[in-house]
Amino acid sequence: AELQSFVMAPEQGQQEAMDGAPLIAAATGLKDEGNTFVKKKLFNDAVHRYEKGIDILDKADGQPILRHEVEQMVQLKAVLFSNIAQCMLNLELWRRANEAATASLKFDEANVKALHRRSKAREALRDYAGALKDAVAQQSVETNDELESRLKMLRAKKEEIDAAIRAEEESSEDEADTELVKMKERFDEVVEKYDLRDDETASEVADWLASGEWLLTVRRVANRWKMEEGDAEAFLRWIAKGVEFQSQNSANQAQAAAAAPAPSLLT
């Protein structure tokens, strides 16, 4: 829900502007009470006061309010949500801290405290890219030695995670390549064992696979060429992989052709 703002008194027949001052005063009082609880490290009690303040301000949603009161309410909501985020950090409830700080930034995207608190929550959640993004946004509003040090630390952590991901991807690719080599070697062994060097055998199985007319099973292949079932399985796996590669290449070529610009008819 949104607040409707009026700069001038409404004309006759229009809905009168709601008096937002009592709501602002009540929510401000609850904010101050919450701050007192924070100083006593009673964070759950503080959160209760902040949330109650937000609920009071929500009563103005959808109501016509004078513009300056709307601005006060928006800023107050940003502060209340940001304060909740700090309490959640103190309670080590990282996801709830992240959510509260995000809510604060919806009302005030340049709120440096909310940016810092969400960055801290994201760091605890090991979302170093998100933590770094918030720290950079904070830097655009303010800068100091502590923030510069934090930016350096977050960049190092992000790079460490990125490097680990790259290494894992490369390792996975290597493992896949190794598996393909083993599959091909096993296929060659079967071909040699059953004297299936002619291309017609592989073509026949490939046709079965591609046509979809046959339920091609290991047993069917074993019976067709008098193979042991283990050999038939290895033989069938490699041919199926070949059909898969062929289908993928055809799809890639079709996609490339569709993306290519049409030839010009102009000379």
Molecular structure report:
With 267 residues, this protein is mainly alpha-helical. Helix content is 75%, strand content 2%. The chain is built from ten helices and two strands. The chain has helices at 21-39, 43-58, 67-90, 94-107, 112-124, 128-141, 145-193, 199-211, 218-225, 229-259; strands spanning 4-6, 64-66. The chain has a two-stranded parallel sheet. The radius of gyration is 33 Å and the shape is elongated. The two termini are 60 Å apart. The model is unreliable at 4-12 (pLDDT under 50).
Care to give the gist of this entry?
The chain has 267 residues and is an all-alpha fold.
* Assembly annotation: single chain
Measured between the Cα atoms of the first and last residue, the distance is: 60 Å
Order of helices and strands: EHHEHHHHHHHH
Largest sheet: 2 strands, parallel
Which runs of at least 5 residues are low in confidence (pLDDT < 50)?
4-12
Report the sheet-strand fraction. under 5%
> Count the strands?
2
- Rounded mean pLDDT is 84
- Total number of helical segments? 10
Main sheet: strand order: 1-2
Shape: elongated
Helix percentage range = over 70%
Helical/strand content category: mainly alpha
Rg:
33 Å
What's the topology here?
Elements lengths: L3 E3 L14 H19 L3 H16 L5 E3 H24 L3 H14 L4 H13 L3 H14 L3 H49 L5 H13 L6 H8 L3 H31 L8
Parallel strand pairs: 1-2
Helix pairs in contact: 1-2, 1-3, 2-3, 3-4, 3-5, 4-5, 5-6, 6-7, 7-10, 8-10, 9-10
Descriptive tags:
two-stranded parallel sheet, mainly alpha, 267 residues, 2% strand, 10 helices
